[in-house]
Amino acid sequence: MIKNKIWYEFLNFKFGDEYLILYINKQRRIRKYFKIATILLSCSGIWSVYNELKYPAIIAFIIITLVQIFTSIESYLIHSEKDIDDLCELRNKYYSHWNELENLWHKSLNYSESDLTDKFYELREQTKKIEELDNKLGIKKNKILTKKADKLTRTYLKIYNNE
C-alpha cells in the first residue's frame, strides 16, 4: 500500500517538475518579447523627435503613453525576474523531491512496511516548503503545457522505468 503512495507521489512531482520547466521557459519567452516590444515602441518616440510632421508625433505620443501604461501594469501581466527566479527555485525543489521519492521507491524492497512508511512521511514533511512557494507564485494551468508535461513524464517512465 505505501509503495503505491510513494509511486503516485513520485509521478505527481515528476509531472510537476516537467510542467515547471515548460512554464519557466514560456514565462522567459513572454518576458523577452514584452521587453523587446517595449524597447521598439519606445524608440518610436525618438523617431518622432526627428520628424516634424504632425501625425507621426501624435502617433508616437500615443504609443509612448501605451508603453508607459503597460510598463506600469507589467507585474500584473507577466512574471517579474524575481518571480522567475522563485519559479526556478521551486523547480529545483520539485526535482530534488521526485528524485528522493524515486530513490525510495527503488529501495523499497530493503525496508519493512513500517520503515518505508516512516521514510515516506519524512519526505512528505519536506513538501510544506514546496507547497508554500507554489501557492505564493500562483502558477497558472495551461492545457498545452499540461499535455507536453504529461508526455515528457510518460517518456521518462518508458525510458528509465520500463513502464
Succession of helices and strands: HHHHHHH
Number of domains: 1
Number of β-strand runs: 0
Arithmetic mean pLDDT: 86
Could you state the oligomeric state of the chains shown? single chain
Summed up, the helix count is 7
The secondary-structure class comes to mainly alpha
- Measured by DSSP, the beta-strand proportion falls in under 5%
Low-confidence stretches: none
Amino-to-carboxy terminus distance: 19 Å
* Share of residues in helices: over 70%
Specify the overall morphology: elongated
Using only C-alpha atoms, the radius of gyration works out to 23 Å
The major β-sheet equals: none
Keywords for this entry:
single chain, mainly alpha, 0% strand, 163 residues
List strands and helices in order, with pairings.
Elements: H1 2-50, H2 54-72, H3 74-77, H4 81-106, H5 113-125, H6 127-137, H7 143-161
Helix pairs in contact: 1-2, 1-4, 1-7, 4-5, 4-6
Descriptive notes:
87% of the residues lie in helices and 0% in strands. With 163 residues, the protein is mainly α. It starts with a helix and ends with a helix. It has one domain (2-161). The protein contains seven helices and no strands.
